[in-house]
Every structure is written in structure tokens, then in C-alpha cells.
Amino acid sequence: MQVSNKTDIRRLSADELKTMLEKEGQPAFRTKQIFQWLWQKGANSFDQMSNLPQELRAWLNEHCVIYTLKLETTQKSDDGTIKSAFSLYDGKSIEGVLIPSLDRITACISSQVGCSLQCTFCATAQLNLQRNLSAGEIFDQVVFLNQQSNSQFHKPISNIVIMGMGEPLLNYKSVMSAINHITSPDGLGMSPRRITLSTSGIAKMIKQLADDNFACNLALSLHAADNVKRSQIMPINDSNSLEMLANALKYFYEMTHTRITYEYVLLRDFNDSMQDAKNLALFCRHTPCKVNIIEFNPVSHAPHRASTVEKTMAFIEYLQSKNIIVNMRRSRGKDIDAACGQLANKLAKKNAL
Ligand code: SAH
Fold first, then answer.
1. Could you give all domains of the chain from N- to C-terminal order, each with its CATH number?
2. Which residues are known catalytic residues?
3. How far is the centre of ligand 1, averaged over its atoms, from the C-alpha of 295 (Å)?
């Protein structure tokens, strides 16, 4: 473990960096150069910053630190999905996943170490929350997975989903700062339309996203459109009811004009009946939306089973009959515990790359 008392340079805003450098008598253009190294080129050491004078690099080495992720293990699924475990500067671990498909390569990244929410169907819940990730640690996952995509699939990532470990809206500031660096022309320059943030539904923060002109896509993990059922599997629903969420989503839609995606994991004999489909169709009336039906991925200790093929088809057909856009999301990377809800820092047991 190497926690130091130096300044974590990627926690500084451009203004803060400028102020620090001014005190050292450095001209303003150095801020821009250093910012570019940090957030555009993904530098992980000051020694790489070849256009800075030697003395400045030495000063930075003495006073500042760049906490980068360290790749621990990589596993490849039979379907091509690649899961990577990273260790952080304080010895904690997170996971990120690269999901190749015909037309895209998606990077799934984490926002927290563990998660504070106790969704009954999700393995990450079993880790509890250990800490929030910094913007730099969220950003690094993208840089790393993009390099991995280039080396494994010979093309860069095309999409990012913030759907790994953690609840992004409970680490709002760092997630927004990371997105900013990922999308900014002074950063990685990715289009916000290619990024999706998935939330379990924190009404107040969905409104905040709207106020902050959030330009990415928003997915809500709905999983039940009935308060009693939803609270049973997602305790966060006790303080963020469906009515509060509907209200926040309407506001979000009014401000951003972005269609919401609802994620719905079909759990056998729990939320897969015709009545459940009707409730979902009613909820879909609140704003323009689409529904992603997710196959339940087995998680140890979870008291659920995947729905049957027949019920799944009937559920989807009902929604389609109500003119709702529905996609069935196949599980990816299930054999290496890389699929939705399976990220739990388990030791690599198969297919290390
Ligand atoms: N906390 C955020 C993002 C992480 S979860 C959220 O709740 O949206 C990413 C997606 O995987 C969510 O839709 C989540 O509900 C789903 N998921 C969790 N456990 C799952 C499981 N066992 N099988 C299938 N999907 C699961």
C-alpha cells in the first residue's frame, strides 16, 4: 500500500492546477500542457511529459502524484467478452469489462468500490461500499479498456456504459468530472451520445443531471413497476418511490429531450407475469423511452432464478403490442462472472489471458 501525502494531481481542476503552478512561477501554458498529458494522453507518470522542462518534472515528482490503476488479472469469455481486475493505490480492487459485438465495442466501467445499495439480485451488493472512485480512477478504466480494445480487437472502444460496480449517482461529482474529461475536446473527445449512465434511481440526482445539462444517455434499473415489489428487491425504492422517479424522469426529459432506457431483469415468478408487463407498460407512458429486458445472471446467495423462455417471450410481446421499443439483452461474459450484476472481485478462476 502506497498512500502518500503528495497532491493527487488529477483531483485538481484546471484553475487549481494553474494556481499551484503560478505559485511556482510557471507560465499559464504549462497548465494546458500538463492537463493534456493527464486527460488527453492518459499519462501515468510525470517523466512521460516530454515537453515540460526537466526541473518542472522533478518538482511535480516531488510534490504531486498520479494514482493510476494497476492491471491485476484479465479473463476472456468464450463469447469474446474480456473482464479486467484493477488494483487501486490503496490496495482495493475494481473490475471493468470490454464487450465486443458486431457493430460496437463497449467498455463497461465501475464508479465505486463495491456498492451501498442492497439490490437482492446483484453480486456487487455483497461487497458493500468500500469507497468512491476518483474521477481519475474512472477515467483510467476508459483509457485502459481502450488500449485493450486496440490490442485485442484492432479498433478503439465505440461506447461506454457506466454499469459496472457501484451507483454512479451516489458518486456524482467524480462521475461527472470523469465524463467531462472523456467527452471534452481537451480530453478524449468521445461523443456523449455514446455514453450511458445506469442508475438504480436516485430521484434528486436525476433532476441534478437535468440541471447540469447531462448530454449522455440515461438508463434506469427499474425491474418492477410496482412499489411493493420494487422495494422488495431494491431497498433504494423505499426512499425513491416510482412516483418520485417518474417525476424526476419527466423533468429530465423536458430538459434534455433524451429518451430514457428502462432496464428490467426478468426474475422467474416474481416480476415476469402479464400484470407486471402491464405495470411496466403504464410506467413507460411517463416519457419517451425504450425497454431493455435483461436475462438474470446467476449470483451466489441471490434468491432468484431467470424467467422461462415462454414467459420472457410473452412479456416482450405484450410490451411490443403497446408500441414500446423493447430490446432483449443477451448476457455476455457469464462464464467468467463478467455479466451484469456479477462483478464482485472474485478471483480469476478461468481463462486468464
Ligand atoms: N448501480 C447502477 C449500475 C450498476 S448495475 C444500477 O443499478 O443501474 C448495471 C445493471 O445490471 C443494472 O440494470 C442492474 O440492475 C443489472 N443487474 C444487477 N444484477 C444483475 C443480475 N444478477 N443479472 C442481470 N442483471 C443484473
1. 7-65 (1.10.150.530), 70-352 (3.20.20.70)
2. 95, 340
3. 11
